[in-house]
Write a structure and sequence with these properties.
By secondary structure, the protein is of the alpha+beta class. About 20% of the residues lie in helices and about 35% in strands. The protein has a six-stranded antiparallel beta sheet. The chain has a four-stranded antiparallel beta sheet with strand order 5-6-4-9, covered by helices on one side. The longest helix has 14 residues.
């Protein structure tokens, strides 16, 4: 994107969580810019970054993202839907999350290619499908298996929390962090002593993702009690 005048909003492509975190972190350090991220629905991981003039109120409807409903594809996987959408000649950066429900799916795409996708996506594999643009629909990400539980840690260091949340030794969690396998709020973390806080999202490649739901206080033995949600 190019933002030359600064008097109108500008938007990136739909970014994966890691790139989103890196770009946001870099821009916040270097520039004083009013920005926000949005992916088309509640729970989207792939998002556009929008850049706005200071005087402008941020509205999710300003983001050029279209919602395409795909019906007739029961039993298809995320890979099936994504592969067929990209097979119409679309770049990956123009396709966001795909919410898969029992008998339909909703794909979030860049508004500029929504007509292209609707016109060409007539089948996924051997299954004929129907596409249509939907608007003014509040969409939540489909339910996924989650585990919410309490853990007790000696400190809020990321290696200590990963160790307890993913049932591994603290030494192993530290090695994984140093091997650049851990992300804090979508930003790669290389320091095992990095402290986390309530609301932080931690991803451990190959193991899963967790959210620090709450920091509950100090136990009688001087440890810290946390409630975490792991997916």
């Amino acid at each position: 994107f190019v933002w030359e005048t600064g008097d109108i909003p500008a938007f990136t492509e739909l970014l994966d969580p890691v790139r989103l975190g890196k770009i946001t972190d870099a821009l916040q350090k270097e520039l004083s810019i009013k920005m926000a991220g949005y992916g088309g629905g509640e729970g989207c991981e792939r998002r556009m970054i929008g850049f706005f003039p200071d005087y402008m109120e941020i509205d999710e409807e300003q983001f050029p993202i279209a919602s395409i409903e795909i019906t007739g594809g029961g039993g298809l996987t995320h890979r099936d839907y994504l592969g067929s959408i990209l097979g119409t000649g679309i770049d990956r950066g123009l396709v966001g999350d795909i919410f898969i429900f029992d008998n339909r799916a909703v794909a979030f795409v860049s508004e500029k290619i929504s007509g292209h996708v609707c016109g060409l996506l007539t089948a996924i594999g051997r299954k004929p499908v129907h596409t249509s643009l939907i608007k003014d629909v509040f969409l939540l990400a489909p339910f996924s298996d989650k585990a919410i539980f309490d853990i007790t840690v000696s400190s809020l260091r990321i290696d200590s929390i990963l160790s307890k949340a993913f049932n591994m030794s603290r030494g192993k969690s530290a090695k994984l962090i140093e091997a650049e396998k851990a992300y804090l709020n979508w930003i790669c973390i290389r320091n095992p002593s990095k402290e986390v806080k309530e609301g932080d999202i931690i991803t451990l490649r190959g193991s899963g993702r967790m959210i620090v739901k709450s920091v509950n206080g100090v136990t009688k033995k001087g440890n810290i009690s946390l409630t975490v949600e792991r997916t």
